[in-house]
Design goal:
five-stranded mixed β-sheet; six-stranded mixed β-sheet; 36% helix; elongated; 409 residues; Alpha-Beta Plaits; alpha/beta; Aminopeptidase; 2 domains; 17 strands
Length: 409
């Protein structure tokens, strides 16, 4: 039997074996979900995030992980964010014998302000659970813990190491945790993202990368009534440049260019001496972002208003999680396990970014969306289909087993 055929058989058999165990864990999963959703843990609520972090560390320790919390900082100052959690669980198959290190990545923060958990408490309505963060990402974070518990119960430890990462600031672009996440990728062979599956059940095989730019246009001030001809209107130059940037949409496949913020002038009787454009570029490939950056710089160098000039400064960059052959191999294993569980899986590409972008950008094969099925993220109707929890937990656990042993993958 070929190695790919063996791997597919392993994924299917493991998923079928673990499903009853996942069903047995379901009630406790729901109890834990209710508890975590009841905690306000917005990105800018470090006390709430740290309550989730403390709970996560305790659960990891109970599973045998070496787990710890670490403060993370942004901009060289003390962080406004909660702590980052990292847990490490050693398997019984060292790397030199084919064992692989698997990174499970989720986040503890939500987009919601303090008080939201009291205003919209956790509730079950038929198959759906509702509450702030129930899908993004508390349901996924719990799925990762449950999957590891299944493996421990069955003594399925043929991997080198499982590294469990829970970040405190993903919803605002991971400004403090991103360097730690990037450093953790050293020595990792595969990464599985714990964001919940798409609303139709698809996994996420690609995420667009993002680059932010600030374009500063300078002109020359003058009295707008007495001698406007002596001025050079930076606002007018910026307006033409805005149009040039928006016209870039569609030029390089799926690359999007959006001028989301504009600032110009301070008085209506002065010819505007300075303006700013804040531009966001998204692309499924790093090459797409490069093409857009070069085009923006070229447009800024040829302003249409005499006497004005512009500088372009890149303020943020997050690499694309690209659709790669290695990710497709991981997805094929997931499809095989899903078929055994009567789950038909698709591979989705999304414009949203997450910690999976940083991990994939470091060169680690990554597959995301491995939590239960959910939707309505960031809104008042956010939901998680709790009937999908056992099968998705079994699927995730089977994927860890399949990827953890190089001899079977």
């Amino acid at each position: 039997m070929s190695a790919p055929a063996r791997a597919r058989g392993t994924a299917a058999r493991t998923a079928a074996l673990l499903l009853p165990d996942a069903v047995a864990l379901h009630d406790r999963y729901l109890s834990d979900l209710r508890h975590l959703v009841s905690i306000d843990s917005g990105s800018y609520s470090p006390e709430g995030v740290n309550r989730v972090a403390a709970w996560t560390v305790r659960r990891l320790a109970s599973l045998g992980f070496e787990a710890d919390r670490a403060a993370v900082t942004a901009g060289g100052r003390e962080s406004r964010f909660g702590d980052l959690v990292v847990g490490r669980l050693r398997g019984r198959l060292p790397v030199e014998r084919g064992g692989r290190r698997i990174l499970l990545a989720g986040h503890m923060d939500t987009v919601f302000d303090d008080g939201t958990a009291a205003e919209r408490p956790f509730r079950l309505s038929g198959p759906l659970a509702h509450g702030p963060g129930v899908s993004d990402d508390k349901g996924g974070l719990l799925a990762g813990l449950a999957a590891v518990e299944l493996l421990l119960h069955r003594r399925m430890l043929d991997f080198a190491e499982i590294v469990f990462l829970a970040t405190p600031d993903e919803e605002i672009g991971s400004p403090a945790s991103r360097p730690v996440t990037a450093a953790l990728t050293a020595g990792i062979h595969y990464a599985l993202g714990l964001e919940c599956a798409r609303e139709n059940g698809d996994l996420v095989i690609a995420r667009k990368g993002v680059a932010d730019f600030v374009i500063t246009v300078t002109g020359r001030a003058a009295h707008a009534g007495i001698e406007p001809e002596r001025g050079a209107n930076a606002a007018l130059a910026a307006a033409h440049l805005l149009i040039d940037c928006q016209k870039m949409n569609g030029r390089w496949g799926d690359v999007t260019v959006n001028v989301g913020m504009v600032r110009a002038g301070s008085r209506i009787n002065v010819v505007c001496p300075e303006a700013e454009l804040h531009v966001e570029v998204r692309s499924s490939t790093d090459d797409g972002i490069r093409h857009a950056r070069e085009a923006i710089e070229k447009a800024a160098a040829r302003l249409s208003v005499p006497g004005t000039n512009a500088t372009v400064r890149q303020t943020e960059a997050c690499p694309a999680m690209e659709d790669t052959p290695a990710a497709r191999t991981m997805f094929a294993h997931a499809v095989e396990a899903g078929r055994e569980l009567s789950i038909a899986l698709g591979a989705a590409a999304t414009g949203g970014v997450g910690d999976a972008n940083t991990i994939a950008g470091a060169g680690v094969p990554t597959l995301d969306g491995l939590g239960p099925v959910g939707g309505g993220d960031h809104g008042p109707d956010e939901w998680l289909d709790v009937t999908t929890v056992p099968s998705r937990v079994a699927l995730l656990a089977a994927l860890i087993v399949t990827l953890g042993d190089a001899c079977g993958s």
